[in-house]
Amino acid sequence: MTEIRAIVTDIEGTTSSIDFVRDVLFPYARKRLPAFVETHGDRPEVQHWLHEAAREAGLIEASRQDIIELLLGWIDQDRKSTALKALQGMIWKDGYEAGDYRAHLYPEVAARLRQWRADGLRLYVYSSGSVPAQQLFFRYSEAGDLGPLFAGYFDTETGAKREAGSYRRIAEAVGEQPQHLLFLSDIVEELDAAREAGFQTAWLVREPQALPATPRHPVHRDFDAISF
Ligand SMILES: CSCCC(=O)C(=O)COP(=O)(O)O
Ligand SMILES: [Mg+2]
């Protein structure tokens, strides 16, 4: 195996449970989104993402109410829209700061990330959640503030997670040849794209999911099972 110099990890389904995102974060944002847009809709960064959402949907002359309904529908569909993710991140900030929740991590994740860091590996995140949302996630995790462990964060402004070009851009940004990078994810199409770009891959298949009979990528039950 070629030397691994840096690890790029997905969040949902990889470091953390899908249930936490679906049952805690999404409903929190869904409930507060209408009031958030009404109250903060004139802030330039909010205006920018509302405009981007309308553009993505092909809505011309959409009212604020139209955009709110559009975004609520996208939350329900778990659409990986960059605009939606940016707005969700702004709303989640209040919940983290108020102590309404802490980001879930699978039990071995924090210790294993610390060990990889102590071994000299650089750690990065690549998630559909916005970069500010990722930073909040690890700052307010169940295992404390893990932010200092990470050298950088990537979201869908770098590109879609199922496209090889996104991983090529990440490799370039971190200054490593792709073969020295290991991408961790629970989604096989993301791993396919990373491999196409030259990354090494690790497929996290957490209990109680069945192990695939003929996996296209090295499969691991948890971070402790990953060796290189
Ligand atoms: C920054 S955590 C929020 C999770 C989220 O919104 C999401 O879509 C997670 O997708 P991932 O790419 O981490 O599977
Ligand atoms: Mg995932």
Fold and architecture overview:
The chain has 228 residues and is of the alpha/beta class. It folds into two domains: 6-16 and 103-225, 3-Layer(aba) Sandwich (Rossmann fold); 20-97, Orthogonal Bundle (Transcription Termination Factor Rho, Rna-binding Domain, Chain A, Domain 1). The chain contains eight helices and six strands, in the order βαααααβαβαβαββ. The chain has helices at residues 18-40, 44-56, 64-77, 82-97, 109-118, 131-139, 164-174, 188-196, and strands spanning 6-9, 122-126, 150-154, 181-185, 200-204, 219-220. A six-stranded parallel β-sheet has the order 3-2-1-4-5-6, with helices on both faces. α8 (188-196) links the parallel β4 (181-185) and β5 (200-204). α1 packs antiparallel against α3 and α2 (44-56) runs antiparallel to α4 (82-97). The chain is globular and about 55 Å long. The ligand CSCCC(=O)C(=O)COP(=O)(O)O is lined by residues 10-13, 21, 25, 80, 85, 127-129, 133-134, 137, 161. The ligand CSCCC(=O)C(=O)COP(=O)(O)O binds at residues 10-13, 21, 25, 80, 85, 127-129, 133-134, 137, 161.
